Amino acid sequence: MGRYNLRMAASLQLLNVKAVKPFHTVSWRRSTPPLRCSVAPPPSTSHRSYTITLLPGDGIGPEVVSVAKDVLTLAGSLEGIKYDFKEMLIGGAALDTAGVPLPDETLSVAKESDAVLLGAIGGYKWDQNEKRLKPETGLLQLRQGLTVFANLRPATVFPQLVDASPLKKEIVEGVDIMVVRELTGGIYFGFPRGYGVNQHGERIGYNTEVYSALEVDRIAEVAFKIAQKRGGKLCSVDKANVLEASMFWRKRVLEKAKEYPDVELSHMYVDNASMQLIRYPKQFDTIVTNNIFGDILSDEASMITGSIGMLPSASLGNSGPGLFEPIHGSAPDIAGQDKANPCATVLSAAMLLRYGLGEDKAAERIDKAVEDTLNRGFRTADIYSTGTNQKLVGCKQLGEEILKSVESNVLAGAV
Ligand SMILES: NC(=O)c1ccc[n+]([C@@H]2O[C@H](COP(=O)([O-])OP(=O)(O)OC[C@H]3O[C@@H](n4cnc5c(N)ncnc54)[C@H](O)[C@@H]3O)[C@@H](O)[C@H]2O)c1
């Protein structure tokens, strides 16, 4: 299992999720009480069956979800797992068919399932729609509907892809950051919001950055526990020199820190954090931040790793199914051209197995298969380096190679 997965596994174990084994530098000084969640109890050895809601969405979403579904099915079947896949509409696809970005049926099926795998939403076609009819609104409604407040976004440099990073090798080698982003509060959801007229009679648009104590406390708790199981360092990113909501955030994080004396807490303003991520990313272990800063910083961190096409994410709440999705969007510029990198979605499927269903072995089969495929030199364009003996392939072929790796790992007895 790769370093990234060890880290993720270790991190999420504190969330009452089964981890495979702890990362070697992790300190297990004390056990933490389970925090959540939607994760099923450890699977029995008999045949297991799960309902998975698939939300392919728009753009490259259907292409990458199709690959992930095949990989999930094969890796699962090797572990005696059966799935009942429910494919539902979301985003632009739902707008075109049902007139809303998140049909009620999609949300109720998702809530009833064991886990949700999403591709991506959005596209030029719907960009000019009014807010309530934007694909992005459907995704925000889904996250709210599933009450997944903690978004875990790892940014880990795969050793095979060090050269794909736009940054110098010595800067990116060994980068392993976990961004813990608050997902259901802040300016994306705050009121008042809207359009109006200011005191000078000028038309304005406005939003509200607002956090309650409960919202900050619970995300800080997740982040401290994750940091505790990783390198023991947590950096809280805010804009407390300007924003009251950030001053409040910092105060609550400092309060929560008293419960975690073994975690080294630091604070950084978001503008500095965005600079430091490029200057010296290895200084970061775990980052906790609000919804909008997390949105931006995790995308920035993803570029350090080489491609947004490699990074999965998990969104977890206190109960109910988790939401697993690549961090990239619908990539309309390459949609329908078989150019998308499916790895982020395939790795999201592995996270779904591990953290959503407690099916560590099947998850490990997928993680190993992705690494094996990279080791065999197969690359989509976003991670391809010219002048090497790498093999440039499309989304479908990379998916087929991952499936071959799942199978060959069985023959080699690697899992
Ligand atoms: N979670 C989501 O569904 C989500 C997230 C971000 C953006 N979006 C939506 O996606 C649309 C496009 O947004 P954007 O261009 O800002 O972000 P994007 O992530 O879709 O694309 C950014 C760049 O990365 C490339 N890229 C993304 N995923 C890739 C993959 N798997 N393989 C290879 N290259 C990949 C794209 O081709 C593009 O050049 C917008 O409508 C936006 O609202 C959706």
UniProtKB/TrEMBL annotation:
<dbReference type="InterPro" id="IPR024084">
    <property type="entry name" value="IsoPropMal-DH-like_dom"/>
</dbReference>
<keyword id="KW-0432">Leucine biosynthesis</keyword>
<keyword id="KW-0460">Magnesium</keyword>
<comment type="similarity">
    <text>Belongs to the isocitrate and isopropylmalate dehydrogenases family.</text>
</comment>
<comment type="pathway">
    <text>Amino-acid biosynthesis; L-leucine biosynthesis; L-leucine from 3-methyl-2-oxobutanoate: step 3/4.</text>
</comment>
<keyword id="KW-0479">Metal-binding</keyword>
<comment type="subunit">
    <text>Homodimer.</text>
</comment>
<dbReference type="InterPro" id="IPR004429">
    <property type="entry name" value="Isopropylmalate_DH"/>
</dbReference>
<feature type="domain" description="Isopropylmalate dehydrogenase-like">
    <location>
        <begin position="51"/>
        <end position="402"/>
    </location>
</feature>
<keyword id="KW-0560">Oxidoreductase</keyword>
<comment type="function">
    <text>Catalyzes the oxidation of 3-carboxy-2-hydroxy-4-methylpentanoate (3-isopropylmalate) to 3-carboxy-4-methyl-2-oxopentanoate. The product decarboxylates to 4-methyl-2 oxopentanoate.</text>
</comment>
<keyword id="KW-0464">Manganese</keyword>
<dbReference type="GO" id="GO:0000287">
    <property type="term" value="F:magnesium ion binding"/>
</dbReference>
<dbReference type="GO" id="GO:0009098">
    <property type="term" value="P:L-leucine biosynthetic process"/>
</dbReference>
<keyword id="KW-0520">NAD</keyword>
<keyword id="KW-0100">Branched-chain amino acid biosynthesis</keyword>
<dbReference type="Pfam" id="PF00180">
    <property type="entry name" value="Iso_dh"/>
</dbReference>
<dbReference type="InterPro" id="IPR019818">
    <property type="entry name" value="IsoCit/isopropylmalate_DH_CS"/>
</dbReference>
<dbReference type="GO" id="GO:0003862">
    <property type="term" value="F:3-isopropylmalate dehydrogenase activity"/>
</dbReference>
<dbReference type="GO" id="GO:0051287">
    <property type="term" value="F:NAD binding"/>
</dbReference>
<protein>
    <recommendedName>
        <fullName>3-isopropylmalate dehydrogenase</fullName>
        <ecNumber>1.1.1.85</ecNumber>
    </recommendedName>
</protein>
<keyword id="KW-0028">Amino-acid biosynthesis</keyword>
